[in-house]
Specification:
It is found in: Membrane. With 292 residues, the chain is α+β, with helices and mostly antiparallel strands. The chain has three domains: 81 residues; 86 residues, Roll (SH3 type barrels), CATH 2.30.30.60; 107 residues, GMP Synthetase, Chain A, domain 3 (2-Layer Sandwich). The chain has nine helices and eight strands.
């Protein structure tokens, strides 16, 4: 113990060296912990991401607290000397303060957690990490109705939570209301083909429709709102140029949405061709009436 006393006194008199040793030790421990949590798997699970985020945030907090305790006297003296320029510091650190308060707002409101799908402004993605300054997401292409990862990682400063609303899209990870439209140039009675089209859609949805109904009911109870339901919906609108637009909405598994859309488009085109090409052929064969 007597041999360690000079070393401790030396480190206390050289706080820069002690601070560097503390930071190096904590970072080394953090890297070891992160390596143990990740293991040798190729893809990190949601539980592993949560523990990795907790480890990073915990070690960052430990470093800040340790440095504050070591440099407390110097910080106090420095703070007193900054009284005259306190306002300038607040203005200069506005964004940093907003990031910290945005993190507090996120934690208090429980807007999202790691693994959730969120939309902030024009960005959509799955939350993979969040800390006191920023939130990191893996971008998802939701705006084009593809529901797949783009491979891009977006870092959102927490100050954005005061500027843009945070939309939690977590229920869309399993099932989604998938909307798409088909434009028809000719003005014909499309309602004639709806019964057969709905029958084809129900055939495609038969394997998961019961699970979809239960999941839809669960979302309604959780959100406390009346959702459109799990059955397919079809309606028609017209454009300013007289074209008809068929809008179709499905409640289906997210990973099957694009595939089901392609199958339904194929069914629509086939039914449309069979129905109206035969009608056109029959009209062409009927004798024309004389001009009166």
């Amino acid at each position: 113990m007597e041999q360690l006393t000079p070393v401790i006194e030396y480190l206390m008199n050289h706080k820069l060296l002690l601070s560097a040793l503390v930071i190096f030790t904590i970072v080394l421990i953090r890297q070891f912990a992160l390596k143990q949590i990740r293991g040798d798997v190729a893809f990190v699970s949601e539980k592993q991401r949560k523990w990795m985020s907790l480890t990073k945030n915990g070690t960052f907090t430990l470093i800040v607290l340790t440095l504050f305790i070591l440099w407390q006297s110097e910080i106090s003296e420095f703070a007193l000397s900054l009284t005259a320029i306190a306002v300038a510091i607040v203005v200069a650190s506005k964004e940093i303060i907003l990031c910290f308060t945005g993190s507090i707002q996120r934690a208090s409101a429980r807007s999202f957690r790691i693994g959730d799908w969120i939309e902030v402004g024009a960005l959509c993605g799955e939350v993979i990490e969040h800390n006191m300054m920023a939130t990191v997401i893996q971008e998802i292409d939701l705006h084009h109705g593809n529901y797949h990862f783009t491979g891009k990682t977006a870092t959102l400063p927490n100050s954005m939570f005061f500027t843009y609303p945070v939309k939690n899209l977590n229920f869309m990870k399993r099932y989604v209301y998938h909307n798409f439209s088909i434009t028809v140039r000719d003005f014909v009675n499309l309602y004639l083909i709806f019964p057969e089209l709905i029958e084809q859609i129900e055939g495609h949805c038969e394997e998961f429709i019961e699970v979809a109904r239960r999941y839809n009911s669960m979302i309604e109870k959780h959100a406390g709102v009346d959702l459109p339901g799990s059955d397919p919906h079809i309606h028609i609108t017209t454009t300013s140029t007289g074209e008809q637009v068929v809008h179709i909405m499905l409640f289906c598994p997210t990973e099957q949405a694009v595939h089901l859309e392609q199958l339904i488009r194929e069914d629509f085109m086939q039914i449309y061709h069979e129905t109206f090409s035969q009608s056109a052929a029959a009209g062409a064969m009927s004798p024309s009436l004389p001009f009166m």
